Amino acid sequence: DSGAAEGDFYHVKDLLDPDERAKLDRVRAFLVDRVAPGAGERWEAGETPLGLRDEIRDLDITGTWADDHHIAPRSYLLTGLIGMEMARVDASFATFFGVHAGLAMGSIRECGSEEQKERWLPPMVRWEKTGAFGLTEPLVGSGASLGLLTTARRDGDSWVLDGEKKWIGNATFADLVVIWARDVADDQVRGFVVEKGAPGFTARALEGKIALRGVQNAHIVLDGVRVPEANRLARADSFRDTARVLKVTRGGVAWSATGCAIGAYEAARAYALEREQFGRPIAGFQLVQDLLARMLANITACQGMVVRMAALHEQHRLDDAQAALAKMFCTTRMRETVAWAREVLGGNGILLEHGAARFFADAEALYSYEGTRDMNSLIVGRAITGHSAFV
Ligand code: FAD
Predict the structure, then answer these.
(1) What is the mean pLDDT of the chain?
(2) 377 CA to middle of ligand 1, Å?
(3) Which one of 25, 148, 173, 280 is separated from 142 by 20 to 30 angstroms, measured CA to CA?
(4) What are the residues facing 201 on neighbouring strands?
(5) Nearest CA-CA partner of 263 in 169, 167, 342, 173
(6) What's the pLDDT score for residue 69?
């Protein structure tokens, strides 16, 4: 039985129906054959795997993020496990996919009119149009709910956007960027789909990242960018609507964090079985086994949590605090797990070629994006006490 070797000790994949299981197996084969081989090189070179878009389309999985009767029914367990499998191989790839399918398509799914969904989701499901999501700004990160500086001003049949966004994944090449801005008329946050080539829109790649180097992030400048009223997300009237998108994607990060931990654990286990010191495999030493057991315990605890989260979501019962708890817990357990994995590899733990190093570095970004550990903890704290500690 390979449950321990593959980081699926309690067999959570057995919860899928046979069709879903076949789909997940296809995704796994693609990840192993097509994503894993170049992941280290792409990370070093700072390259996003844009060339894989046609193959991702052919996997026929992106529709399950659309939650739309026109495209495909959504299975939260399957989407979660796909995200986990992606991050298990390459967290940059998982982020590239997640920004498009989770954040950008999710904004349109949660906040678009039926007409807007019809217009944008089908080409996004087919990866003919790639999406990005612009909320964070150079001066506004955790405090986005209160103080976005990017403004939207209504002018006849269109809107004029001015401001800057930072950290925006996929934005250097995206066809559609969802921009969140504060309406100067009433101070409410609204969402706008800015299409590639809009005059006044520029996106420059951020240099010098030490995590998730295999996916590009951009610094965006919006200088009087004009978008038609038809591109204003019809059902986004305040930050509460943005938060509906983030609830789902935070849950998604909990799944990817679990996957990132599994990837590091697998690298550590393989290395421990291979590497010999004192004339025997280091896997035979008690202290190494203890680290591996603790990694597997972290992974298994996270899986228990995210599987239950998916069930709550399926029943439309998942709330913000429950998603925040999973994001906070799974990223914390991941951060601990990847550090133990790096430790098992000794000096080789900091070399990209042995695998663990990439997961170790990437974990830092997963820990802080989509709401830092602190902010997610405070969302849970508010649910526990009724007091908001951050507003
Ligand atoms: P800050 O908000 O400045 O926080 C700094 C520190 O202060 C943190 O430790 C934080 O927890 C703490 N802090 C802040 N407020 C409080 C408080 N009230 N109480 C206690 N502690 C507090 N954003 C997008 O919009 N789109 C993207 O595609 C995107 N991709 C990203 C990809 C990567 C690799 C990274 C690193 C970030 C990405 N982000 C993206 C931005 C990300 O969501 C923010 O980095 C995150 O929300 C934190 O904001 P900040 O970095 O400005 O930190």
Answers:
(1) 96
(2) 13
(3) 173
(4) 222
(5) 342
(6) 57
Closest ligand 1 atom, CA of 136? 25
According to the model, what pLDDT value does residue 73 have? 61
pLDDT at 70 over 60: no
- 140 Cα–ligand 1 center, Å: 8
Question: Is-contact 193 152, C-beta < 8 A?
Answer: no
CA 347 to ligand 1 centroid distance, Å: 31
- Between CA 75 and CA 16 the distance in angstroms is 10
Judge if the beta carbon of residue 142 lies within 6 A of ligand 1.
yes
pLDDT for res 68: 63
Instruction: Kindly state if the Cβ of 368 falls inside 6 Å of ligand 1.
Output: yes
Distance of CA 36 to the CA centre of its chain: 18
One-letter amino acid for residue 311 of the chain: A
C-beta separation of 46 from 209 below 8 A: yes
Residue 369's Cα: distance from chain center in Å?
Answer: 8
Q: Tell me the residue type at 180.
A: W
Structure-token pair, residue 6: 């593959």
Mind spelling out the 3-state secondary structure of 365-384?
A: HHHHCCCCHHHHHHHHHHHH
> For residues 265 and 267, what is the distance between their CA atoms, to the nearest angstrom?
5
155 CB-near residues (< 8 Å, 6+ apart): 226
pLDDT tens by residue, 221-237: 999 999 999 999 999 99
Q: 347-377 pLDDT, tens per residue?
A: 999 999 999 999 999 999 999 999 999 999 9
Q: DSSP labels for 13-28?
A: GGGS-HHHHHHHHHHH
| CB 352 within 8 Å of CB 42 | no
Residue-by-residue DSSP string for 240-256? HHHHHHHHHHHHHHHHH
Q: At what angle do helices 356-368 and 239-274 cross, to 10 degrees?
A: 160
Q: What is the pLDDT of residue 1?
A: 62
Q: 354 to each of 48, 50, 258, 294, 333, how far by Cα in Å?
A: 21, 24, 20, 21, 21
